[in-house]
Amino acid sequence: MLYSMTGFGKAVTEFPGKKITVEIKSLNSKQIDIAARVPSSLRAQELEMRNHIAALLERGKVDMTVYVENVAGDASVKLNAAALKAYKDDVEATAKAIGIPVPQDWYNVLMRFPDVMKSETPAEADDKEIEGVLDALRRAAVQLMDYRRAEGEKLEVFFKERIERLRELLALVPQFEEERVAKIRLRMEEGLAKIHGVDYDKSRLEQELFFYIEKLDVNEEKQRLAQHLTYFMETMEGPKGQGKKLGFISQEMGREINTLGSKSNHAAMQKLVVQMKDVLEQIKEQVLNVM
Prior knowledge:
It is a single chain. The protein is α+β, with helices and mostly antiparallel strands. It folds into three domains: about 5-75 and about 125-150, Ribosomal Protein S5, domain 2; about 75-120, no CATH class; about 150-285, no CATH class. It has nine helices and six strands, in the order E-E-E-H-E-E-H-H-E-H-H-H-H-H-H. It has helices spanning about 45-55, 80-100, 105-110, 125-170, 175-195, 200-215, 220-235, 245-265, 265-285; strands at about 5-15, 20-25, 30-35, 60-70, 75-80, 115-120. It has a four-stranded mixed β-sheet with strand order 1-2-4-3. A two-stranded antiparallel sheet has the order 5-6. Helix 4 packs antiparallel against helix 9 and helix 8 runs antiparallel to helix 9 (about 265-285). One of its GO terms (molecular function) is RNA endonuclease activity.
């Protein structure tokens, strides 16, 4: 089964006086990359939260945000009167020293200074708050994985359609091979016929022609490409976390398709190869989203 690396999860935990909200969203990335925003009262639990997310999500660029709201009715943040008074005294002294008027709107000026607000929230969260945060985190992570699985199912449909299209295009290659050999022989014979006054050994020509055509044989490339297509489908049915493996398989598919193109020496076959490359690029783009 496939899981996408794109997802979103949100969970809320409420208990008397507090409301905790955890939001987690993820995008594609080669490794696990977690950006966390948590209140200062929960800094001690940040590592535990990161480890839980990393173990469950495995890969992706993850943005985790934890909000803790005080809903008890008493304000958890208040104006810092001491700091405001100190700033006001300093502004008045500076204005007098350089001969400029003091501000007319003191609040507008003073509120721009740092530390004019002070939090009444405890420096560290209590056990009840910590358990509430971890519970919300677990539920948000599960919701995100459910989202990833739903997106993964869409990717499975997408890949199956593209792999089937590549099989259809590959099945069209044999019809051009006999014609391709005949045209190669004809071009060589026409080229020799243009060289007047020169006799050549026809049996040697047949031998050289055989070696030349053998170098342009594409049976191995067709077989390997067919095997890669089957392996891609089998890998999709495996456990989660197959994104890197599917990426490697698609690279091998690209090598076989490129070799088919370089050996084709036939306009119709080259058109098939171009179509194969187009389908493969679509696969490669979406493989980047697979976990």
